[in-house]
Design goal:
The structure holds two protein chains of two kinds. By secondary structure, chain A is mainly α. Chain A contains 16 helices and two strands. In chain B, 60% of the residues lie in helices and 1% in strands. The chains are: A mainly alpha, B mainly alpha.
C-alpha cells in the first residue's frame, strides 16, 4: 500500500494525524515534559520499530508492530504511575510517538528509501484517539492522576483501551488499504486475515508494558518489547519467502515463454486481467493470490506439446487438445505436491462453463482465467477499441455455454471503468 | 522459609519446557533450549536452589531420548542453574521478599552475569562430553561457536523477559497481568511456523519448476533432484559453508531447466545430433539462466547454471572458460551432472555402471573436470554411502538399479 490519489479516507486520516500531532505538541510545550527519560527510551523503541517495518502476512507494507506496541503502551500509561512516579499525559505520549516516527522516517530518508508509509498516520491516530477515550472514560471528568493503586479496575480499563486501539487500527487499515475495486467488507475481512494476529500481539504487548511500568518503570518497555522484536523478525522472513515464491511462480510461467510456446507478456496480461476481474467479483485476497498464480501458469502445459501452437493462442487448439494441455499443466504442480488449489484452477480453466461441476470450489476462478485468456488471445498485445468490442461480443455469445456469464459481465465492468 | 510450592511450580515448568519446541527462526534447525529461560525466572525466587527444580528436566514425554542422554541433560541443566543461581546471589541480585524493592537495573545486572554463568557451564558440559566421545569429530571451536550463536542471544533475550515476568508476578499487580506476555510470544511462534510452511511450499514449487522439463523429456525424470542431492553432499564433504551448500543444491536442481527451450524433436532424438542441432542444445545453459533470472535469491546459483557445461581445458560451452575461471559452483555441478547422466538410461544408450562412470570421470580429470572436484567425488562415491538410490523416484520402469 502506498500513497495513492483518490483515497479520501487516507487523506482524512493523515490530516487527522497531522492535526492531533500539532495539538499534542503544542499542549506538551505548554505543560512541559513530565518524564524526560521515559520519553527518550520510548522515542528510541518507537524509532527502531519504525525502522523495522514489515509487510503483514496479508501483504500490506509499512506495518510496524513494535512501534504500535510501544506507542500504545505509553498512551495507556497516562493517568497512572511508572516506577513510583506519575506517568506523562496522553498529549505527551502522542508527541513521543510522533517523534519516534520522525526518527524512523529520517533513517529511511537517509538511506534514500521511501520514508513515508500510509500505515504511520493510522498508528498515530489509533494510539491518540484510544488514549484520549481511555482517559476521558476512566477519568469521568476528573483531572490529574486517575489511578492511585494498581487495582483490578485499572488492569481491566487498560486491557479495554488496548483492545480499542487494536480495533481502531484494523478498521482504519481496512478503510485506507486494499484495492479500490474491493468492497469495504472484503477489505475488512482481508485485513483481519492478514494482520489481526500481529495486531493482537502488539496490543497485548502494549498492555503488558503499561501494567508492568507501575513496578518496573522504564525497563518494562525495554524488556517486554523483545517478543515483538522476534515476531518482527519472523514477519520479515515470511515476507521474503512470499516474494520469492511469487518470483518462482513467475519463473514457471517464463519457462513456457523462453521455450517459445507462448508469446512473451501473454501470461502477465492474463494474470493482471484475472486479478482485476476477481476483485470486481469480490474474491478475497487469498483466492486472488491463487488466481494470479494459476493465470500466470495456465499455459505451462504447452511444454508437453511436440511443436508450439502458432502464436501460442490456446483458442486455436481444439477442445480436447486444450483440456489435455490444461491437465498437463496442472500435473506439473501435482507431481511436486504443491499449491493444490492453483493446480485445480489450471486444470479446470479449459473446461467449458456448462460442463464445470457445480460443486467445484474453484468454479469462479477457473471461469475467470478462461475469460481473461480468451480475451487476451482475441485482443493481443496492442488493443484497439474495435478489437476489444469484437472480443467482448464474441465472449458474450459464449456466455452461459463456454464462459461464465457473471465473469463476462465483470470483464465488461473492468474494461469500462478501467 | 516454606519454598516447596515454588520448587514444585518451577519443576512443573521445566517438565513442560522439555516438551515444547520453541523456535527462534524458521528452518535452521535451531530449537531454543528453554532451560535457561525458565532458570532465569527462578533465580530471584530460589537463589542457588534454582538447581533443584532444574533436575525435573529429566522427564521427557514426547521424544524418545536414550536414558543416558536424559540424565546428562538434566545434570547439565541443574549444574548450569546452580552456577547461575550462585552467581546471581553473590553479585547481590535480590532474592525472595526483597525482590520488589531495590532498583530493577541492579537485579538485571546480576541476571546478566548469572545467565553468562549458565551458558558457560552449559557449553563446558557439552564440550566435555563431545571431547570424551570417540565417535564425535566436531572440532572444539565449532562446538563453542554453535553454542554462542544467535540462538543463545535470543535465549538471553527471552531470559530477560521471563525474569521480568517473575518480578511482575510478585509485584503489585499480581500474576494475571504477567500471563498476558504469553500471547505475543505464542503469536511469534505461529508466525515462525507459518514461515516454515511457506518455505516448504516454495521448495516444492522450485521442484515443480525443475520437473516442468519432464513433461517434455521423460528420460530426465529425477535428474535435477539427484544432481541437487549429490551436489549438496559433495559440497558438504568439501567443507563449504551451509549457505553455499544449499545454494549449489538449488543450482543442481535447476541446472538443466533451459532444455525447455530446446526443440522437443532434438531432445528426444535417437542417435547422434547434426551440427545445427547440437548448436541449439548448447544454448540451454543460457536459456536456463533466462528462466530463473527473476528469482532474486538464486542470484548466486546463476553462475552454476550458466557454466555447468564448461570444460576444465576451455573447450566447453557457452563461453569456453578454462580452469579456475570457471565458477566453483559450475565445476562441482559438472562432475555430479556427468556422473548422473552416465549412470541413467538415455534415449540413445544404456546406462553405465557405477565403476565405469567413476573411471570415466577420473579419465576426464584435468581435461573435462576440475581435478579437486573429481577426486573428492570419487573418494565420496567409494565410501559407499553415496549415491543413494531413491526408491520410487526418478527411476524409469526397467532401468537397472544403480549399484551402491
Amino acid at each position: 500500500m502506498s500513497w495513492r490519489r483518490g483515497n479520501d479516507v487516507l487523506w482524512l486520516v493523515s490530516l487527522a494525524a497531522a492535526g492531533l500531532t500539532l495539538w499534542c505538541v503544542t499542549r506538551t510545550a505548554l505543560l512541559g515534559l513530565q518524564a524526560v527519560w521515559l520519553d527518550i527510551v520510548f522515542v528510541l523503541i518507537i524509532g527502531l520499530g519504525e525502522v523495522l517495518r514489515v509487510r503483514t502476512p496479508g501483504g500490506a507494507s509499512g506495518s510496524a508492530p513494535m512501534s504500535l506496541a510501544a506507542g500504545a503502551g505509553l498512551a495507556l500509561l497516562a493517568g497512572s504511575y511508572h516506577g513510583g512516579r506519575p506517568a506523562p499525559p496522553v498529549c505527551e505520549a502522542v508527541t513521543v510517538v510522533a517523534a519516534g516516527m520522525v526518527l524512523g522516517s529520517l533513517v529511511f530518508a537517509l538511506g534514500r528509501r521511501e520514508a513515508l508509509t500510509a500505515r504511520m498516520p493510522l498508528r498515530l491516530v489509533s494510539v491518540a484517539v484510544a488514549g484520549e477515550v481511555f482517559h476521558l472514560v476512566a477519568g469521568l471528568g476528573r483531572h490529574g492522576h486517575l489511578f492511585a493503586r494498581p487495582d483490578h479496575w485499572w488492569v481491566v480499563a487498560t486491557l479495554g483501551a488496548a483492545a480499542l486501539i487494536g480495533v481502531l487500527y484494523l478498521v482504519l487499515a481496512a478503510l485506507t488499504g486494499g484495492s479500490a475495486r474491493a468492497s469495504v467488507r472484503t477489505r475488512l475481512l482481508d485485513e483481519l486475515d492478514g494482520s489481526a494476529l500481529v495486531c493482537a500481539a502488539a496490543v497485548a504487548t502494549a498492555s503488558v508494558i503499561a501494567i508492568g511500568s507501575w513496578d518496573l518503570g522504564v525497563w518494562s518497555a525495554i524488556i517486554f518489547s523483545i517478543p515483538m522484536l522476534v515476531t518482527t523478525g519472523a514477519l520479515r522472513r515470511y515476507a521474503v519467502i512470499r516474494q520469492t515464491q511469487a518470483q518462482t511462480v513467475r519463473a514457471l510461467s517464463r519457462a513456457a515463454e523462453v521455450a517459445g510456446y507462448i508469446e512473451v507478456g501473454h501470461s502477465d496480461r492474463v494474470a493482471d486481467l484475472s486479478v482485476r476481474i476477481g476483485e470486481v467479483l469480490g474474491l478475497r485476497s487469498r483466492r486472488l493470490n491463487e488466481l494470479r498464480s494459476a493465470a500466470l501458469m495456465h499455459d505451462i502445459g504447452q511444454l508437453s506439446l511436440r511443436e508450439p501452437i502458432p502464436g501460442g493462442a490456446t483458442l486455436l487448439a481444439t477442445g480436447p487438445q486444450r483440456l489435455d494441455i490444461a491437465r498437463r499443466g496442472a500435473q506439473v504442480l501435482e507431481r511436486a505436491a504443491v499449491l493444490p488449489a492453483v493446480a485445480r484452477i489450471m486444470a479446470e480453466q479449459a473446461v467449458p462453463y456448462c460442463e464445470l461441476a457445480d460443486d467445484s470450489p474453484v468454479r469462479t476462478e477457473a471461469g475467470v482465467v478462461a475469460v481473461a485468456n480468451a480475451y487476451d488471445d482475441l485482443v493481443g498485445a496492442e488493443p484497439s477499441f474495435q478489437r476489444q468490442a469484437q472480443a467482448l461480443e464474441r465472449l458474450r455469445l459464449g456466455a452461459g455455454s463456454q464462459y461464465d456469464p457473471a465473469v463476462v459481465e465483470a470483464l465488461e465492468q473492468v474494461l469500462v471503468h478501467g | 522459609m516454606q519454598r516447596w510450592p515454588t520448587h514444585l511450580f518451577f519443576a512443573a515448568l521445566f517438565v513442560i519446557g522439555q516438551q515444547l519446541r520453541l523456535r527462534v527462526r524458521p528452518s535452521d534447525g535451531m530449537a531454543l533450549s528453554v532451560n535457561a529461560i525458565i532458570a532465569a525466572a527462578s533465580y530471584p525466587l530460589l537463589g542457588w536452589a534454582a538447581a533443584l527444580p532444574a533436575l525435573a528436566s529429566v522427564v521427557q514425554l514426547r521424544r524418545r531420548v536414550p536414558r543416558e542422554a536424559r540424565l546428562f541433560n538434566a545434570a547439565t541443566a541443574a549444574l548450569s542453574a546452580f552456577a547461575g543461581g550462585v552467581v546471581y546471589t553473590v553479585t547481590g541480585g535480590p532474592v525472595g521478599a526483597q525482590i520488589t524493592e531495590g532498583p530493577v537495573a541492579t537485579a538485571l545486572g546480576s541476571l546478566v552475569v548469572a545467565m553468562a554463568a549458565f551458558t558457560a557451564t552449559n557449553v563446558a558440559m557439552l564440550a566435555g562430553v563431545m571431547y570424551l566421545d570417540p565417535r564425535s569429530h566436531t572440532p572444539m571451536a565449532q562446538i563453542v561457536r554453535r553454542a554462542v550463536s544467535t540462538a543463545t542471544l535470543q535465549q538471553w533475550a527471552f531470559g530477560f523477559v521471563s525474569f521480568m515476568v517473575a518480578q511482575l508476578w510478585l509485584g503489585s499487580v499480581g500474576p494475571i497481568a504477567s500471563l498476558l506476555i504469553l500471547l505475543p510470544i505464542a503469536i511469534g511462534q505461529v508466525m515462525i511456523a507459518r514461515g516454515e510452511a511457506e518455505q516448504r511450499v516454495h521448495e516444492a514449487t522450485l521442484l515443480a519448476l525443475a520437473q516442468a522439463l519432464e513433461t517434455k523429456d521423460p528420460y530426465t525424470r529425477g535428474h535435477g533432484e539427484r544432481v541437487a542431492a549429490g551436489s549438496r553432499e559433495l559440497a558438504r564433504d568439501l567443507g563449504w559453508d551451509p549457505a553455499a551448500v544449499q545454494m549449489v543444491g538449488y543450482a543442481g536442481l535447476l541446472h538443466d531447466v533451459g532444455k525447455i527451450a530446446v526443440p522437443t524433436g532434438i531432445i528426444r532424438k535417437r542417435g547422434p545430433l547434426t551440427s545445427p542441432e547440437y548448436e541449439s542444445v548448447k544454448l540451454h545453459p543460457l536459456r536456463g539462466v533466462e528462466v530463473v533470472r527473476g528469482i532474486e535469491f538464486l542470484r548466486d546459483a546463476l553462475d552454476g547454471i550458466r557454466h555447468h557445461h564448461e570444460r576444465y581445458d576451455g573447450s566447453g560451452y557457452p563461453t569456453g572458460l578454462a580452469g579456475d575461471q570457471i565458477p566453483l559452483f559450475a565445476r562441482l555441478l559438472a562432475v555430479v551432472d556427468a556422473y548422473d547422466a552416465m549412470t541413467t538410461a538415455r534415449t540413445y544408450r544404456r546406462p553405465r555402471s557405477h565403476e565405469e562412470a567413476l573411471a570415466e570421470l577420473t579419465s576426464g580429470r584435468g581435461s573435462q573436470f576440475d581435478p579437486v572436484q573429481v577426486d573428492a567425488f570419487v573418494a565420496l562415491a567409494r565410501q559407499g554411502t553415496w549415491p543413494r538410490p531413491q526408491p520410487g523416484r526418478g527411476r524409469r520402469a526397467g532401468a537397472p538399479e544403480r549399484p551402491r
